[in-house]
Amino acid sequence: MPQTSTKQRRRKACVIGSGPNGLAAAIVLAQAGLEVQVFEAEPEIGGGVRTLDLTLPGFHHDFGSAVHPLAAGSPFFSSLPLADYGLEWVHSPETLAHPFDDGTAITLNRNINEAAAALQADGSAWRSLMQPLATHWADLVPELLRPILAVPKHPFLLASFGLKAILPATTVARRFRTERARALFGGLAAHSFLRLNQPLSGSFGIVLGAAAHAAGWPIPRGGAQSLANALAAHLAHLGGSITTSTRIQSLADLPACDLTLCDVTPRQLLALAGQAAPGKLSSSYRRRLDTYKYGPAAFKVDFALSRPIPWNAPACLRAATVHLGGTFDELATSEDAMASGSPAAKPFVLLAQPTLFDFTRAPAGKHIAWAYCHVPNGSTEDMLERLESQIERFATGFRSTILARHVFSPAALEERDANLIGGDIVGGASNLRQLLFRPTRRQYRTSAPDIYLCSSSTPPGGGVHGMCGANAARMALRDHKWSG
Fold first, then answer.
1. Is 476 buried (19+), middle (13-18) or exposed (0-12) by CB count in 10 A?
2. Nearest alpha carbon to residue 192 among 469, 455, 431, 468
3. CA distance 248 to 252
4. SS3 state at 223
5. Residue 281 in contact with residue 288, Cβ under 8 Å?
6. What are the residues facing 372 on neighbouring strands?
7. Which residues have a Cβ under 8 Å from the Cβ of 162 and sit 6 or more positions away?
8. Which one of 77-86, 162-171, 268-277 scores highest in mean pLDDT?
9. Torsion of CA 207, 194, 105, 313, to 10 degrees
10. How far apart are CA 165 and CA 187, in angstroms?
11. Which helix (H) or strand (E) holds 14?
12. Cα angle, residue 20 at apex, residues 263 and 165 outer, rounded to 5°
């Protein structure tokens, strides 16, 4: 009688997309012993975590993320030996600066006592809001970055955060008596792309503020690409492979694999499971994906500069990140206008100036800056003049330092990264329904047992932390009872 082989075929997984979530998913699957192949449409890996020469030779700009508070504190990234592959985090002396029209600025320091001292009358209020979370950051972050419907390991800590996080930023800001403290918190909360009077907008300010004290807001030396390269190198060490310049148009284009994880948004998944694979996704699941809402967009400009930005407030030269928008009320007006479909006359601008602290990114003596403002999804409004005017408002003479610029409209962002639908850089609208059930109640699972979503359109959402990919891959392994 023929003998039955006891050797099992090695299971194979395909991952579509090499953003941080796709790479995180691939690493988890490779750690479990699967043969993993990643397919990337662009010539470079990284998705929103790429560094490109966008202006002049020798000026290395971050296409997407530039400053990484959640990456530095990510439970998944922290579990990997990424320093062995060249990843080095650079911390500026001040985490953040927020200038005002009087030529001064408030700064946020990693040391919470120094931050509280700088806030003077509001120092105790700031400390009472941020210190409990910063102190327990190692316990809090895994709770915030796990699947929403999972049972928490630290329920009381999560409940304490949740009672504050559900509030609008306008409500949280009432804790502070001074305009400077309110403006500082408003800039943090405005990262949400929400109106500042909307529920949940306060959570972004609280999380980013606590992160500033617990993990900092570092930049990767050499640019964001260093993070993507380190993840890819670790994947290669585990035996995984990446194929670039290969755009997967349909799930039918993939080689035979036991599991497919898609670092794509709902609209793209619908296209992938289109005419060539009509039976892959159920009609009811397709309908739910079709109702997924995308969020506002970014209008981004990369600058090559002849010298550092001439800030009116010298303290701004000590921070890698600068928030430009003036008072809390001005920030709220800017986000209200954007949410109403009319780009703001004086937009809130997020600016990064990495070459003050990482000299590898530009020729000697020269600098780069990265800046964006919020606009409605798919907006065709040219915001360049308004964005530069906001910088010039707080840095007189800024325009005289510009050697070259590269403008990314929402459409141009999507052209460089298909996940950025209409210029949405966070994978979907940050409303309560989608926070709990993004993109559907299935979260990472689809209606097909061998296909999972692992993009920022799944919990916990946008940000460079890799947890969408890691969570999705772990769920897939549990569902199939595979450990390698």
1. buried
2. 431
3. 9
4. coil
5. no
6. 300, 350
7. none
8. 77-86
9. 120
10. 16
11. strand 12-16
12. 90
* 8 A C-beta contact, residue 136 and residue 127: no
**For residue 71, what are its two tokens?**
């990456």
The answer on pLDDT for 424 being more than 90 is: yes
Q: Which two tokens stand for residue 178?
A: 């001074």
- State the average pLDDT over residues 302-308: 98
3-state DSSP assignment of residue 16 = strand
**Nearest to residue 34, comparing CAs of 251, 261, 281?**
261
Q: How far is CA 192 from the centre of its chain?
A: 11
The contacts of residue 329 (CB under 8 Å, 6+ apart) are none
Dist CA 259 CA 399 (whole Å): 51
Asked if residue 163 has pLDDT above 80, the reply is no
Count other C-beta atoms under 10 Å from residue 439's C-beta.
26
* Cβ burial 313-347 (10 Å sphere, 16+ → b, else e): bebbbbbbbbbbbbebebbbbbbebbbeeebbebb
Per-residue pLDDT tens over the stretch 175-233: 999 999 999 999 999 999 999 999 989 999 999 999 999 999 999 999 999 999 999 99
Give the H or E element holding residue 85: none
Look up tokens 């928030």; give the residue: 323
User: Is the omega angle on the peptide bond into residue 439 within 30 degrees of 0, that is, cis?
Assistant: yes
Give residue 171's identity as a one-letter amino acid code: T
In this structure, what token pair is assigned to residue 309?
């930005």
Q: How confident is the model at residue 3 (pLDDT cuts 50, 70, 90)?
A: very low
Q: Where are the beta strands (DSSP E) in 20-73?
A: 35-39, 51-52, 61-62
Report H helices in 85-221: 112-118, 123-135, 137-144, 155-165, 169-173, 179-189, 201-214
Q: What is the DSSP string of 244-272?
A: -S----SGGGSPS-SEEEE-S-HHHHHHH
Instruction: Return the amino acid letter for 95.
Output: T
The secondary structure of 289-329 as a DSSP string is HHTPPP--EEEEEEEEESS----SSGGGGGEEEEEE--SHH
